[in-house]
Design a protein that fits this description.
Blueprint lengths: L1 H19 L4 H4 L3 H19 L3 H29 L2 H6 L1 H21 L10 H18 L17 H25 L1
Length: about 180
């Protein structure tokens, strides 16, 4: 059963990523959504090929936490801000990357996979913070715009940027703990 679910995850992730990335691969990799789905694809492939080695299990845990974060940010931040739920949640790319991928990966991890030890709890928040710092720096240097509204340092106050980062860190920390505790 686990092998079939991992193959399903690989197909879902390839489908979602392919629909969104071929022509703009490097540009799309600045999105947390793309990174989380690419991590899910790679971790599922590694788990399928090599089994539940400790580092692969930790990588799967990271990918699942990132995907849950992707789903929650899309539903509670991007949909109300951008106001395009059909595109973000139900369009071809949005459905695969924001809904189906996170859901299937979470179900697979919760019910069919080996789980991490408590040492891994800090991996998702730390890597998410690193991503956030990189994106804020690139926005500050005007090398990128966004890709999310909370990174646009010139379109909001410093306090708003700091508040967003703190809220998002709390969310990913809660996700990390919840996936660990309930799975």
């Amino acid at each position: 059963m686990n092998r079939l679910i991992l193959i399903l995850i690989i197909v879902i992730e390839l489908t979602g990523l392919y629909q969104n990335t071929p022509k703009r691969l490097w540009h799309s990799m600045m999105f947390y959504t793309q990174l989380s789905n690419a991590a899910a694809l790679l971790s599922a492939l590694l788990l399928l090929l090599f089994g539940p080695l400790t580092w692969i299990v930790s990588f799967r845990y990271l990918a699942v936490c990132m995907l849950v974060m992707t789903c929650l940010v899309t539903v509670f931040v991007l949909v109300p801000t951008i106001r395009k739920p059909r595109f973000l949640l139900w369009g071809r790319v949005g459905f695969f990357l924001h809904v189906l991928g996170p859901l299937i990966n979470l179900i697979s991890y919760a019910f069919f996979e080996t789980h991490v030890t408590s040492v891994s709890l800090f991996i998702p928040p730390v890597l998410t913070l690193i991503y956030g710092i990189i994106m804020i720096t690139l926005n500050y240097q005007k090398k990128v715009d966004g890709p999310y509204p909370f990174f646009r340092v010139y379109k909001q106050s410093t306090a708003a940027t700091v508040m967003w980062i703190l809220v998002l860190l709390c969310v990913i920390s809660l996700i990390s703990y919840s996936v660990f505790a309930f799975c």
